[in-house]
Design goal:
Blueprint lengths: L8 E2 L5 E5 L2 E6 L2 E6 L5 E5 L2 E5 L5 H22 L2 E8 L4 E5 L2 E5 L6 E3 L5 E6 L3 E6 L2 H14 L9 E4 L14
Antiparallel strand pairs: 1-6, 2-3, 3-4, 5-6, 7-12, 7-13, 8-9, 9-10, 11-12
Keywords: Ribonucleoprotein, Ribosomal protein, RNA-binding, rRNA-binding
Protein name: Large ribosomal subunit protein uL6
Organism: Microbacterium gilvum
Length: 178
C-alpha cells in the first residue's frame, strides 16, 4: 500500500471538498480549484477527511494512488494559504519593474522583456531585483516562475541572470590569464 496515498487529508475550517464522479472540487477563502481524478482511483469525503483508495495493486493504480492524494492536498493548501515562488535578478544593469499587473525585465537584451501574468497569478516586485510569483495553483505558480527564469538563465561564469530565491549557481573558473 502506498505510504502517502493511504494517509487521510484533513479538511481545514472554511474549506469545502465535493466529489462529483471523477471530479474533486475544492473551495476555500482564496478561491476554487478542481481536479480530474484518473480512472481506477476513488475519492471519498468522510468526517472532515478526504480518503483516496485504489481498487487493486496494478502498476498504474499504485502510481496514481499517491499522486492523486498529493494533488488534492496541494489544492487544499492552495485555497487556504496559496503558493509563492521567489525569483532574483542578478547582474549589472539587470532589473525588474512592475508595470500595472505585468512586469518588465531589463536583462541585457536590446529591448525590455514584458511578462503578462496568466489568470490566477500575481506578480510582486520588491526593490529592483526581486520578484515574487504567487497564486493558488501550485503547478501554475511553478510553471510561470520557470518560464520567467528561462528568459535569461543564470550563466556559470559570472552568475548573471534570473534565478530562484536561494538557488546556488555553480561557478566555473573561466580562462586563465598569462
Amino acid at each position: 500500500m502506498s505510504r502517502i496515498g493511504r494517509l487521510p487529508i484533513d479538511i481545514p475550517a472554511g474549506v469545502s471538498v465535493t466529489v462529483d464522479g471523477s471530479t474533486v472540487a475544492v473551495k476555500g477563502p482564496k478561491g476554487e480549484l478542481a481536479l480530474e481524478v484518473a480512472k481506477p482511483i476513488e475519492v471519498k469525503v468522510e468526517e472532515n477527511q478526504v480518503l483516496v483508495t485504489r481498487p487493486d495493486d496494478e502498476r498504474e493504480s499504485r502510481a496514481l494512488h499517491g499522486l492523486t492524494r498529493t494533488l488534492i492536498s496541494n489544492n487544499i493548501i492552495g485555497v487556504t494559504q496559496g503558493y509563492t515562488k521567489g525569483l532574483e535578478v542578478v547582474g549589472t544593469g539587470y532589473r525588474v519593474a512592475q508595470k500595472g499587473s505585468s512586469v518588465e525585465f531589463a536583462l541585457g537584451f536590446s529591448h525590455p522583456v514584458t511578462v503578462e501574468p496568466p489568470t490566477g497569478i500575481t506578480f510582486t516586485v520588491e526593490g529592483n531585483n526581486k520578484l515574487t510569483v504567487s497564486g493558488i495553483d501550485k503547478q501554475a505558480v511553478g510553471e510561470v516562475a520557470a518560464n520567467i527564469r528561462k528568459i535569461r538563465k543564470p550563466e556559470p561564469y559570472k552568475g548573471k541572470g534570473v534565478r530562484y530565491a536561494g538557488e546556488v549557481v555553480r561557478r566555473k573558473a573561466g580562462k586563465a590569464g598569462k
